[in-house]
Amino acid sequence: MRYTQYKGVVEREYKKSLRKIMYELCVVEGLDSIDGALRLGVAKTIFEYWRNFYRYDDHQRLFDQKVQELDKMHFLFVNEGRKQTAQEPLRHTDESSLAGFKEQVEKIAAYYRQVHVESEGLAVEASNLPLFEFVEELLQRYEAGELLKELMRNSPNAKKG
């Protein structure tokens, strides 16, 4: 018999689609190829073929889950990248201040986010993005006073002033 003939026999016996049957056996019950093949009354190689075809092997399911998580993260990252565009004009161009530095860091980070999204993470230039995101985070922590608290907590010689 061929795979499709075995498939027809198993589907008629269980009165379900083969996908649902394999899901119950591999995912819900967690059967290995020997026990699953015995339960269905087919050869082990047929069961393994079906398990791999429907991607119910443990490694395949883990890989698919990680890919879905990455897709979700990419979706969130794309939406985060739209929060500010690099085309807006600079307000602090002729000064050397913390506000000017912060604005320039935000603009360059927005630019690198855009490059990262457009290239789907493959552009070499987008490798600078984590650095600028880190600087943005440090600026936020500085403005919130968290850096000073950390310095006071970790440095015995630090003085307020």
Give the key terms.
161 residues; mainly alpha; 70% helix
How would you describe what is shown here?
By secondary structure, the protein is an all-alpha fold. Helix content is 70%, strand content 0%. Helix 5 (58-81) packs across helix 6 (98-119). The mean pLDDT is 83.
Write the layout of secondary structure elements.
Layout: H1 3-14, H2 18-28, H3 33-40, H4 44-53, H5 58-81, H6 98-119, H7 129-144, H8 146-154
Helix pairs in contact: 3-4, 5-6, 6-7
How would you summarize this macromolecular structure in one to three sentences?
By secondary structure, this protein is an all-alpha fold. Helix content is 70%, strand content 0%.
**Helical element count?**
8
Radius of gyration: 28 Å
Low-pLDDT runs: none
Distance between the termini: 85 Å
Instruction: Return the structural class.
Output: mainly alpha
Secondary-structure element string:
HHHHHHHH
Query: What summary fits the major beta sheet?
Result: none
Shape descriptor reads: elongated
How helical, in percent, are the residues?
55-70%
